[in-house]
Design brief:
This protein is α/β, with parallel strands linked by helices. Helix content is about 40%, strand content about 20%.
């Protein structure tokens, strides 16, 4: 039998995941695309595992707006170990100049990065891929 605290935590997790879905749908709509299902295997699975390993080991720093209860938030492949609320993400997850226009998968510099995010529970794990890698992984949307 579940305790009231466990039930409350599960309710909070469901609400945070639903909030993340709403946020990602709004972001996609503003970019003229729609959210897509991303496989949690291969490269994406490796990124999810790396994030979760850091999280479980307690090696994640969070902004002051991310509470101990589940909340929709962001992390980024290019800045491992940082989890922030959406308003803080524009500053806290900004790529370093040497990372700007570098594909997170193949690590090559490119003229255009195709951004996306992999939902992991209530966390949107942002990534940026070159044209070739986004095509290889089947996640490129929008204009070429």
């Amino acid at each position: 039998m579940r305790t009231a605290a466990e039930t409350a935590r599960e309710d909070q997790m469901r609400a945070a995941c639903a909030e993340l879905d709403t946020i990602l749908a709004k972001v996609a709509a503003s970019a003229g695309t729609t959210p897509i299902d991303i496989p949690h295997d291969g490269w994406f699975g490796n990124q999810a595992k790396a994030f979760l390993d850091l999280f479980r080991a307690g090696n994640v720093q969070a902004c002051r707006h991310v509470a101990s209860s589940p909340t929709a938030c962001m992390a980024a492949v290019w800045k491992p170990g940082i989890v922030v609320c959406f308003p803080c993400s524009a500053f806290a997850l900004r790529a370093a100049p040497e990372e700007d226009n570098r594909c997170d998968r193949c690590r090559r510099h490119t003229d255009r990065i195709f951004p996306g995010s992999l939902p992991i529970g209530p966390v949107a794990l942002a990534y940026g891929l070159c044209r070739q890698c986004s095509d290889d992984l089947g996640v490129r949307q929008g204009r070429s």
